[in-house]
Design brief:
mainly alpha, 5 helices, globular
Amino acid sequence: MSKDVLSVVKKKTGKNVTPKDIERIASGVKPSTLQSETQLRQLIKQVSGLVNVKVSEETINDIIQAVKSSKLDSNNMQQLMNMMMGKK
């Protein structure tokens, strides 16, 4: 797990997250997760629970729309991580 990811999480949420925490969630993510609205909702709620930050239904809908409308290759999780961290 990149230390960049962990530092972005800490900076954005003020919470310490371990690589093991992220690996536990990531182990359940498959390329099909990005195609299923139900699975995306579940993933968003898992991550928000991990960092103990409430995510509004409106924000969840915005995230789902962004993922669905993006041209991300669902097989390339690094591309998704870079997008979430603000890298190009």
